């Protein structure tokens, strides 16, 4: 067997990868109405899944701060996916065919890279400094296989001077409240009325923001609701 024969047996890795990449690009740039709808709905589904799944896991493991970036990715993708395939790409494709000015033509050729750069920049910013609409509370858990939908009070927290004050709209079914920030326990309230108060300076930073977790527990010490709050989310009294 000659060296040429041996070389012919080596699988053409680069052409195969390049072909797959070209197939992905052809789907990405497919601009017919049906493809726009399919891609947008697919990205909506992926975005909602990442957003809700990340929030659910974070409610059980608040120390897994990387989940903020998963939530941010899904949260932004819900809007950015349809925006990309219904607005940005059609405009870019049209400009590639018709643009005559060099700057416009260059922008059209770089539109996909610019779009992805802006998208991931927003994801990183929101993952580092989460905003209120992005944060979902999944605090209800199960006890003895049965759900407890009756323990679902509204939590109102405000900043007064250098103190954070929280109160509940309904105290039924609650034995005590525990407030934590990072790995520290800031406060435990065993008797109603369950009004929580602690110093802003006691809060620890999580992903660049001062945060605390307020847990409502039953007589067995089991968490029945968990609320995660960032200092930036609170109004000043």
TrEMBL record:
Q: Where are the transmembrane segments?
A: 41-60, 66-93, 114-136
> Which species is this record about?
Natronosalvus hydrolyticus
* Protein name (database record): Uncharacterized protein
Query: Which keywords, in A-to-Z order, does the entry hold?
Result: Membrane, Transmembrane, Transmembrane helix
Superkingdom, taxonomy of origin: Archaea
């Amino acid at each position: 067997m000659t060296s040429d024969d041996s070389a012919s047996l080596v699988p053409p890795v680069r052409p195969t990868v390049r072909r797959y990449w070209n197939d992905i690009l052809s789907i990405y740039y497919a601009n017919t109405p049906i493809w726009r709808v399919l891609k947008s709905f697919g990205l909506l589904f992926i975005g909602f899944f990442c957003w809700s799944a990340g929030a659910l896991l974070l409610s059980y493991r608040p120390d897994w701060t990387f989940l903020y970036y998963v939530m941010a990715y899904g949260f932004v993708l819900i809007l950015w996916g349809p925006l990309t395939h219904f607005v940005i790409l059609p405009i870019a494709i049209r400009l590639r065919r018709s643009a005559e000015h060099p700057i416009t033509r260059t922008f059209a050729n770089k539109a996909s890279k610019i779009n992805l750069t802006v998208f991931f920049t927003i994801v990183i910013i929101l993952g580092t400094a989460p905003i209120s609409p992005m944060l979902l509370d999944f605090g209800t858990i199960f006890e003895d296989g049965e759900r407890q939908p009756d323990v679902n009070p509204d939590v109102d927290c405000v900043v007064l001077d250098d103190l954070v004050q929280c109160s509940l709209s309904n105290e039924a079914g609650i034995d005590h409240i525990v407030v934590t920030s990072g790995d520290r326990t800031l406060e435990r309230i065993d008797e109603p009325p369950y009004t929580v108060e602690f110093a802003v300076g006691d809060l620890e930073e999580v992903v660049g923001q001062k945060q605390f977790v307020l847990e409502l527990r039953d007589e067995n010490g089991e968490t029945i609701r968990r609320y995660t709050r960032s200092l930036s989310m609170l109004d000043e009294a």
